[in-house]
Amino acid sequence: MTSFVDIASLDDIPRQGARVVRTSAGCIAVFRTMDDRVFALEDRCPHKGGPLSEGIVHGDRVTCPLHNWAFDMNSGQAQGADKGHVRTYPIRVENGRVLISAELIARRAA
Amino acid sequence: MKRKLVVIGAGMASGRMLEQLFELDPDAYEVTLFNGEPRGNYNRLMLSPVLSGEKTYEDIVTHGDDWYAAHGVDCRFGEPVVRIDREKRVVHSNRSSAEYDALVIATGSAPFIIPVVGKELPGVVTYRDLEDTNAMIEAGVAGKDAVVIGGGLLGLEAAAGMAARGASVTVIHLMGHLMERQLDPAAGYLLQRDLEKRGITVHCKGATKAIIGHGHAEAVLLEDGTVYPADLVCMAVGIRPETRIAVDAHLEVERGITVDDALRTSDPHIFALGECVEHRQQLFGLVAPLYDQAKVLARTLLGQEAGFQPVQTATKLKVTGCDLFSAGDFAEGEGREDIVFRDPGRGIYKRLVLENDRIIGVVMYGDTNDGSWFYGLMKDQTDISEMRDTLIFGPAFQGGAQPDPMAAVAALPPEAEICGCNGVCKGTIVQAVQNGATTLEAVRATTKASGSCGTCTGLVQQVMAFTLGGALVEAPSGMCKCTDHTHEDVRRLIRSMGLKSIPAVMQELGWKSVGGCHSCRPALNYYLLAEYPLEYSDDRQSRFVNERNHANIQKDGTYSVVPRMWGGVTTPAELRAIADAAEKYDVPMVKVTGGQRIDLLGVRKEDLPHMWADLNAAGLVSGHAYSKGLRTVKTCVGNEFCRFGTQDSTGLGIRLEKLLWGSWTPHKVKLGVSGCPRNCAEATCKDVGVICVDSGYNISVAGAAGMELKETEHLASTPSEDEAVEIITAFVQLYREHAKYLDRPYKWVAKVGLDWVKERVVDDLDNRRALVERFEISQSVYRRDPWAEHSTPAETPRWAPLADLTLEAAE
Ligand code: SRM
Ligand SMILES: Cc1cc2nc3c(=O)[nH]c(=O)nc-3n(C[C@H](O)[C@H](O)[C@H](O)COP(=O)(O)OP(=O)(O)OC[C@H]3O[C@@H](n4cnc5c(N)ncnc54)[C@H](O)[C@@H]3O)c2cc1C
Ligand code: SF4
Ligand code: FES
Fold it and tell me: From which residue to which does the signal peptide run (chain B) (predicted)?
């Protein structure tokens, strides 16, 4: 079972926006949707490494700021004609706090 | 012998439980009932009709004195229980005590009070019981100012009730739209519109800072500085389970009193139900599940097997004329699909969320007749694949009403302007069609509508089709996959329908998606801020990264920082500040741009606000090198130094840049001012170029030197610098008001024609002045340095990572 660590208050992340969490596995983008769901994705677009955390969030999709690839944040899968996948991490909200998978603390840089 | 049952709290849940208990076995228990309120059980839900005047308190009493007498209940009303002695099995109020064999805690919940200054002033109430209701009735009857803090179910019922009684009511809501837990933005918009129609002011994204008053509430102050007068303030921001006596008795309490499926607490003699309990991590705020609990607890108390199983409940708002329905989970998600139906003309919005061919969420506004049908399908997990295509039209549909693509146009008043070029309104077109102009050519010939730039062709066709009662001949392609309306039509409709928010546009123009996409959202944000500079507040999350972060993103995710150098002129002190910043933040490259200023490339995001603060301290502001807005005004040295110079081109350039900076435009805008026709500032390939000559200023526009190379075209000549500035400002404003998002001026001028532009900014003096005035109004909001706004102590931390787990790993 995944164990979780508390990283921030939900209010620290803007609705339809994201903040970055630095981990030894690289930067993780933590998104918050209009309806207060959160997603954690690797902050690197598979196309040319764009920071997805800076993309426009629409519904449960995010569009990369560099060349407009769009990703489903549930699966990390690129949408439409583009092919690619971004890694996702377990994350959840409890009592207004954002909790992320504890494996992100433990892991050494690969 | 009868066993002794003590019940704490005479509310909705315990009332129903006692009914069930007496029905199943009238002789099992002798009941003692304590209640904090000085009365027995009434229908709390119906306080809203009492508030609005549709009912009286007497109408809503559910258990009168004779009912309690008939069932031998020992009533101790107005006696809150203050202590439970679990060892001796006795409860105590301040006046009396009672022994129990079984104890039921049903204390409901307590309104949440936000901890602001002035919260304890007289005139500040919550909305929970009859006392609160009477206080609000009093406010309404006297025609006072009332403020409701909280735009959820309770707050809105309070607001509507007081408004119905004649109070002038303002609702302050922290979130972006009303009832955000039950509604999505589109439904929230419709609800707000309906409340505003009945005179209620709604202030979303409003954080209360303090309640002001001497000895009594007088006004509410918000964080953004707004003040609303208030003789009465109702706080309806939420509830939390009333668990104090349970905590004191050391029962197990999480957020609520923990109960098992049989509604037993951690003490086998003590039970609990209602809003005060927590069951499998879930709290309750609506009565339907509480009634289920009541049934279960009655059985448990009689030693029968029973288990509580929570089901999803639906929400309705009891405000006459605001028809909404919401149930289930309407978040988007993997494998989930939306079916959206919008009927802008009738103000209807319906959305179903599907997963695995089952309905898992419903949001409806305007027409909720089918709510319970959808709710039934959802509860029973009915497979809807067979009826998927017509599902949204409800059970009655078999070839019934289809959404009307022309609803938005149909709803326009006759005086709404359709063709901006020729000033033709809807009524004129309708009349022309009725008089026999049934082809586009004929309409153009008789009314001139769409005869110039042609961008309103789509709308003209819609007006024709709607008048003729037929379908569209050929639909022009929409601005993105979310809508069939073109950019130009959306702009016009925003204006003629008075749409002032993104959800309003999406609802009224029948957007096909739930929340837009990365292509339409920035455009809508621009159109709205250009149309309503004072009322609309910029939506940062609808902007592309560069404009959101006020810097240009680089291919590696770092940013470039370009301070403004007015007219390309700088000072040693500014250069020193730039050099210092470059060193302090390890900037990998310092480059002179093609726009006569200096670019610091490769800055880390978290350093941006710090660097800005340093640059601000030296008097440097953002150069907006990232914006669809004013970029640079290139100048040459002019008559101050150059032997050929005819006018002060540097001075004019600086003047123009100081006037125009900060403004948002459909695409970027660049200017050049050269001191003589040698044109060292390359003014003739800019969006606006000025060539100074002995006799004055030659203004030309619509040039470009990017993907297309285009020389400017002559707009006007004038001997006066002031007039030159006025004409240029008017040109920029006309462009701001009419161009399609992401059209540079040269593309827009090509569509509307230079003559049309000339007429408005050169020939028609009144119109020119009006344009300048509107530009100034917009600049009163936007002529501000965004760097200063984002490098405050409150904002700066938001630019850094949310957390750094690499540090934790090392510790
Ligand atoms: C920094 C600069 C190049 C330089 O090192 O000199 C530059 C850099 C960029 N230009 Fe430019 N342009 C720069 C002057 C120009 C000029 C010359 C000028 O302004 O006199 C032009 C041609 C003139 C014109 O605009 O008509 C120019 C025409 C473009 C275009 C094409 C525009 C068009 O309508 O065709 C783009 C693309 C766009 O905006 O969509 C563009 C876009 C860009 C972007 C913003 C690309 C992007 O979207 O990320 C570049 C950002 C680089 C970065 O990482 O910071 N840049 N760009 C110049 C900044 C000027 C300034 O001080 O603000
Ligand atoms: C204005 C209004 C409108 C509403 N509209 C709806 C609606 O449309 N639909 C819906 O489903 N729900 C609605 N609700 C919510 C619904 O009323 C509650 O869910 C329900 O009343 C909760 O029942 P309860 O028995 O748990 O608590 P309550 O009905 O609040 O009863 C608790 C009682 O316990 C008493 N008490 C507390 N502490 C003590 C103590 N220490 N000793 C003795 N007595 C104590 C209180 O005085 C109170 O009388 C509305 C609520 C309000 C206020
Ligand atoms: S020309 Fe402009 S957009 Fe192209 S690489 Fe150079 S800076 Fe970037
Ligand atoms: S790097 Fe993301 S789309 Fe190119």
Answer: none
